[in-house]
Amino acid sequence: MNSGNVTPAEVVKKILSLLPGVDCGGLGGCGKASCEECASAIAAGESVALCPACKQETVDAIAEIMEVPTVETKDEIAYVFCAGRAAGKARFAGFASCQEAVDAGFKRGECKDGCVGVGSCVAVCKFDAMTVKSGVVVIDEEKCTGCGACANAAACPQNLIKMVPREATNFIPCSSTEADDEIVRETCGFGCISCGECERACPEGAVSIVDNHAVIDYDKCVGCVACAVKCRKKIIVDTYHDLTKVKEKVAFVKCSGGKASPIYKEMGIWTCKEAVAKVDPKDLGLCTTGCCGLGSCEAVCRYDAIHVVDGVAYVDPDKCVGCKDCTYACPKGLIEIVPYKGQKQVPCSSTDDYADKAAVCDSACIGCADCMNNCPNGAIYMEDKHAVVDPELCENCNVCQYVCARGVIKEQVVPEYNYLQRDALNMKEGE
Hints:
alpha+beta; disordered C terminus; two-stranded antiparallel ribbon; single chain; Alpha-Beta Plaits; 4 domains; 3-methyladenine DNA Glycosylase II, Chain A, domain 3
């Protein structure tokens, strides 16, 4: 630098005037204890982009002061790679720091890799960009400068906060290292089960499985929908595309009549699991395979897509994303994942004889086989005394519904905009 009559102290003062001046306490990305120390380091020859909170125009101005070529900045913000509430947040609410909570240890059924929600990251943020709401850390993108203080291990002992490009649109908010996908499902509705579907689907090779959870390489990511659409649990966040309609499969409840829930509630039973464990439906004159109607599936649905109506669970296919959480919550195995294409479905899984079915339910499949015998594509077969539709063969004609004497068979209605959106995104059949 040709400083001329400008003294080194004056150079430091000029650079310091351009820095945020809030002092990250040695936690920020520059690694310096204060902005003054950062300014001194730049004046001594370190990168003019040493402070990650500086925008491009500020770095350009610092480069001009130093009389050196400017450096392209990385415009990044913080992101918390955990979206759940499974790490004992309520239990840790009174702790002084996240480190103290982590040191206390996790109980069985809690995610040992998740956010404990105490808010040590909030305490170190000098730009008022972070808050804790109901145990979840929320980052204000407008206020976040990308200084990196919250991402420091001293602020987040779980190493859940990382810096990502400000323009990034796809995020996988999970850092679980649990290898058993069943445990992940039981622990957290937002947990990555490391199935690898996103990794295989990414056309840019930007997604990989690291320590049993998916990670996006933002140097490669182009922000397409492939990973989000293919995600089995639908936990991948896409802030650009509307993915509420673009989906392959949705949940379907194989029961259409419910009389059990009022009886169970009178007995003091309030969960489906408890009902299955304590009661023999036959003793109560109920369908042995029918929906308990107590809403265990409803409780785990993150998309408000399944509700108990008149004693039986129903799925709203517009809201359902096919994450399968409800299928794991149903102790009777009544919920299955079916193609979101509009095919016919049989909402009955009763294995009882006709007389027993008729006595307990007026909407059960009686196993007459008329639908099977009249299906032009051979898409229907009988299994355990009720009809089943093979979605791969069903062409969504109306013959089965026409011949069904009890009006049991239902159509999964799919609005036209679903097909139009898939076409607009160049999504081929099977993608």
